[in-house]
Design goal:
Elements: H1 4-11, E1 18-23, E2 26-27, E3 33-38, E4 43-47, E5 53-57, E6 61-66
Antiparallel strand pairs: 1-2, 1-6, 3-4, 4-5
């Protein structure tokens, strides 16, 4: 893993709520829940309440804000 955020994602429990996600300096809208991080491919999976799944390259994520309860 070359990105510290990738390491963080690999330790984040599935189902963790996401408040904000930024990639390449842009806010990614519609992302609500972290699903999983695949260390082999480097892909991070997110979803929202309408059932959409978002797939992102972990190394391209600039910032992620989790909603801790």
């Amino acid at each position: 893993m070359s990105n510290p955020l990738s390491e963080l994602l690999s330790e984040t429990p599935p189902g963790t709520a996401v408040r904000e996600l930024m990639m390449n300096g842009e806010d990614v809208s519609g992302v609500e829940t972290f699903v999983k991080y695949d260390e082999k491919t480097g892909l991070a999976y997110f979803s929202n309440s309408s059932g959409s799944t978002f797939v992102a390259i972990g190394d391209r994520i600039d910032m992620i804000e989790f909603m801790l309860e």
